[in-house]
Write a structure and sequence with these properties.
α1 runs parallel beside α2. The chain has two domains: about 150 residues, NAD(P)-binding Rossmann-like Domain (Rossmann fold, 3-Layer(aba) Sandwich), CATH 3.40.50.720; about 170 residues, L-2-Hydroxyisocaproate Dehydrogenase, Chain A, domain 2 (Alpha-Beta Complex), CATH 3.90.110.10. The longest helix has 23 residues. Helix content is about 45%, strand content about 20%. By secondary structure, the chain is an alpha/beta fold. The relative contact order is 0.13. The chain binds NADPH dihydro-nicotinamide-adenine-dinucleotide phosphate. Catalyzes the reversible oxidation of malate to oxaloacetate. It catalyses: (S)-malate + NAD(+) = oxaloacetate + NADH + H(+). GO terms for molecular function: L-malate dehydrogenase (NAD+) activity. Pfam families: Ldh_1_C, Ldh_1_N. This is Malate dehydrogenase.
Length: about 325
């Protein structure tokens, strides 16, 4: 039988963790024939919740689940890790300045990066969900000099999936016919959800939107004033309607991210969006962890090259990338890189 894949989840006692665990253990992330060993990392006050989740995993009797360990020790949690899901983060408290938030998270993601550096398996893949996700990933990567930088990613798949959902609704079409939407930049309100290369059943969506909305100008207005802000601020909308934050969709997007990274994006389904270290593509400064159109081939993520970037897109990509550069400069000034 196959050696189990070791999956480490931080913030395992939290809400997203709770939604993730059962899907991982059932085989939805790594495959229906791949056994998994789970390592749940928590801070001391979160340990009970993680231990409770571990009891429930036992009660679910997943045939693929080879074991569950719960710990508050990062070194133990990341020993031999193949897939690291960094979900636990310090939320912004009342009156907390941005620098305080970055510093608090630096104190979490720096040591976790060092523990990954010390103990991870050679094929380790890291996805950061905890916010500010892109910059947390940058901090973790900076503390893991022996791990190739491209193994550190941040989640923008939820934004990508939200864009697909909004576009499908606007076109009154099933989401499965859509492909090649892109999220650029930071996982924040400055992100740029881009539909300029998107197609529906092979037909470009921009003309379809123009047709439905009464012309190209009306379509551009809808993108600028409704679609983009709605996708970027969807998290706040969910909190308002649901009374608590988006948990199921965040967990689902995390599963999608890892599944496509490990198993590959299917050529017929187009690209996805991943925040990964820039190689300078599309004018994004090298090293910033920024979201791009990405394909996954043979277990490797590749930025889709050669896409035309309109003036409309350029300004929005640049604005989000400038925010990322500002976050990087702030954590550098704090000595966290
Ligand atoms: P959640 O599980 O709901 O969220 C965890 C993180 O995911 C937050 O940083 C949150 O950011 C982020 N996130 C990213 N995308 C989304 C989205 N679409 N919707 C909601 N959140 C999103 O938080 P809980 O408070 O329930 O759980 C966090 C757990 O992490 C706690 O149990 C805590 O003890 C633990 N923790 C563990 C650490 C460790 O293992 N070393 C370190 C720090 C905390 P945002 O705040 O911006 O919503």
């Amino acid at each position: 039988s196959q050696t189990p894949v070791t999956v480490t989840l931080t913030g395992a006692g939290g809400q997203i963790g709770y939604a993730l665990l059962f899907r991982i253990a059932s085989g939805q992330m790594l495959g229906a024939d791949v056994p998994v060993r789970l390592r749940l990392l928590e801070i001391p006050q979160g340990l009970k919740a993680a231990e409770g989740a571990a009891l429930e995993l036992q009660d679910a009797a997943f045939p693929l689940l080879a074991g569950v360990d719960v710990t508050d020790d990062a070194t133990a949690a990341f020993d031999g890790v193949n897939v690291a899901l960094l979900v636990g983060a310090r939320p912004r408290g009342p009156g907390m300045e941005r620098a305080d938030l970055l510093a608090a998270n630096g104190g979490i993601f720096g040591p976790q990066g060092a523990a990954i550096n010390a103990g991870a398996a050679d094929d380790v893949r890291v996805v950061v969900v905890g916010n500010p996700a892109n910059t947390n990933a940058l901090i973790a990567s900076a503390h893991a000099p022996d791990v190739p930088a491209e193994r550190f990613t941040a989640l923008t798949r939820l934004d990508h999936n939200r864009a697909l959902g909004q576009l499908a609704a606007a076109l009154d079409a099933p989401v499965g016919g859509l492909r090649d939407v892109t999220i650029w930049g930071n996982h924040s309100a400055s992100q740029y959800p881009d539909v300029s290369h998107a197609t529906l059943d092979g037909a470009p969506v921009l003309p379809l939107l123009a047709e439905r909305l009464g012309g190209a100008d009306a379509a551009e207005r809808w993108l600028a004033e409704e679609f983009i802000p709605r996708v970027a601020k969807r998290g706040a909308e969910i909190i308002e309607v649901r009374g608590s934050s988006s948990v199921g969709s965040a967990a689902s997007a995390t599963i999608d991210h890892v599944r496509d990274w490990v198993g590959g994006t299917s050529p017929g389904a187009g690209w996805t969006s991943v925040a990964l270290p820039s190689d300078g593509s599309y004018g994004v400064p090298e090293g910033l962890i920024s979201s791009f159109p990405v394909e996954s081939v043979d277990g490797q993520l590749r930025i889709v090259q050669g896409l035309a970037v309109s003036k409309f897109s350029r300004a929005r990509i640049d604005a989000s990338v400038a925010e990322l550069a500002g976050e990087r400069d702030a954590v550098r000034a704090l000595g966290l890189l």
